[in-house]
Structures are given as structure tokens and as C-alpha cells.
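REVIEWER CHECKLIST
Item 1: Sequence provided? yes
Item 2: Single chain? yes
Item 3: Sequence as submitted:
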Amino acid sequence: MPPTKSAGNQTVGKLQEVPIDSISKNEGNPRLTFEPRAIERLAASIEEIGLLVPITVYLNPKSKTPSYILLDGERRFRAAKSINKPTISALVVPRPSAKENAVRMFNIHMLREDWEEIETAWALEQIINETGISADRELHDLTGLSVDRIKNMKRVLAFPKAVQEKVSQGELRYQMLVELDKNVLARDPGGKSQKGQRAVVKLSSSQLRDVFLKKYENNVERDIVDLRRVATLIDTARGEGKIAKRAQDALTKLVSHPEATIEEAYEIGAAASVELSKVLRDMNGLPGRVDDLLSTLTDKDERGQVHTALNKIIKRLQESLKRASK
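Item 4: Structure as written out by the authors:
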């Protein structure tokens, strides 16, 4: 069969029957998970009506005998191989550069939306490595991923590969790593001062990371949103006075006792502080809210209700002020 032509009349590939055993998987494909039942259904379809869409391969330059590297269609390739098909219809294209391979594999994913989030992160990592592009905005332009999603992927990619593999294997949640980095590791990185802020946890970054990973792996913790409470604890511990000291002690217990929970530490070290902040915020915002309300009220009776309520508040606040000054 003659080479396939593009709209610009340039050769983009040649369609031919290729021996399945001569095809190797693409090492640049970060996709690791293939749902067995989906492969079985696809295999049954191929057996019944044949392969409707050819796979795409390129010649392996390192092989002395004709062999190929898979570029697109690993599920189709696996399905055909599972039913012992001797050959498979393939579009043989010129060998892509490492950069082209990384970008193409990524774009295939973006069209089909069938990779796990960790696999998308690995694909992004390959693009960063092959292109040298690391700026979030440039990566957005290249991949179509949102800047926030790229930032979160970079957080996950900063964890050791062994930890990332646990996400791929379903032992850890992807979002848990995002929350752990955002609320704990980036906020108090390994006991180092950051942007003029003193460190509050006297552990290395890897020690701090492992403490919380173990809590989730051992089911001491389950709700990943609770990691946001650790961020509040860290912020509170950076303050002054008794509240800060209480938060510091709660954090120390949390990271030094394997069975200590975030909820317990939060109740001891930050709940009162959070309540105080909320009350102060409401107090500071009340005058403005009252002024806004009065500016919209034209009914005399309604303005009278506000007047009466304000007088009651003033009396109660005067009593509170006396108690606060003791």
C-alpha cells in the first residue's frame, strides 16, 4: 500500500501488516493501567469484525532486523496480541524526536481522557525533561492543562518515585499528596525558615513527609481535607503568646506520636485560635455591614429596628468590655 499523504502532500506514514511480535511498547508512554475487561471487550470486537483503526508505529533504529516501536494504540495492540493475532494493521511513520514523542503521547492522552492523573503527571514530567520547558504558563500553552492543575502535578512529582508508584497502585490518593505538600511541606519545609518565617516543626522535609504518609497508610488518618487543619496549626504556632505555644506543643505531639490524630492536635492547638479570629473578623466587619444596610433602608420602622438592635449590642459590648479589662 502506498504511503499515506497529508493535506500538504507530504508523506506521513505507510499502512501495512506488521508482525505483532516485532512490536515493542513505547517507553515514553507513562500509561501503566489497562482495564482487563476493556481489553477483553476490544479483543472480542477485533475477533468478530477486525481492527477498525490501525495502530501507529515507527521503525526501531537500534534493531538489526525489522522491528517497531509502538506510538499509538497500545490497547488495540494488547487486545490483538491476547487473541494470538500474528499480524496487525499499522501505520508506519518516521521516527519522532524525543520531544515529538513526548508531546505526541501527551496529546493522544488529552484527546482520549483515559489516563489516571498520576500518569498525566508523568507525561507532563517527560515533556518538561524533553523540551526543557518548565514555566507553568508555557506548559499550559503546550499541553492545554490549566495552570492550577500543572502546579498540583509538580507538587506530586516532587515526591519520591516510590511514593508516586503507590498512587499508581492505588495505595495512596493522588489528591492526598497535593494536600500534604500544599498544607504541610511547602508551609513548613523541613524545619527551615521560609520568607522570614521561623520554622515550627523540627524535622527534615523527608521525615515530616513520612510521618503523615504513615498516618494515612496505617489508617490513623483518612480524610485528606484534615491536612488543611495542620496548615492552621502551623500558622497559629508562628504567633506569640500562650495560643502559639499551645499550637507548637500540639504539632510536636502530632508528629512524634504515630497514633496522634490531626483532629486531636487541632482541638488542642488551634480551634480556640480559629474561633477568636472568626469573632474578631465579624466584629471588625459589623460597622461596615450596618452602614451598608442603613444606606438601603428608607422605611422609618425598619431603621428604628436597626436603631434598637444597635443600642442592645452597645450595652452588651460595654459589659463584655468590662470583663475583658479585668
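Item 5: Key structural point noted by reviewer: The longest strand covers residues 11-19.
Item 6: Recommendation: ____
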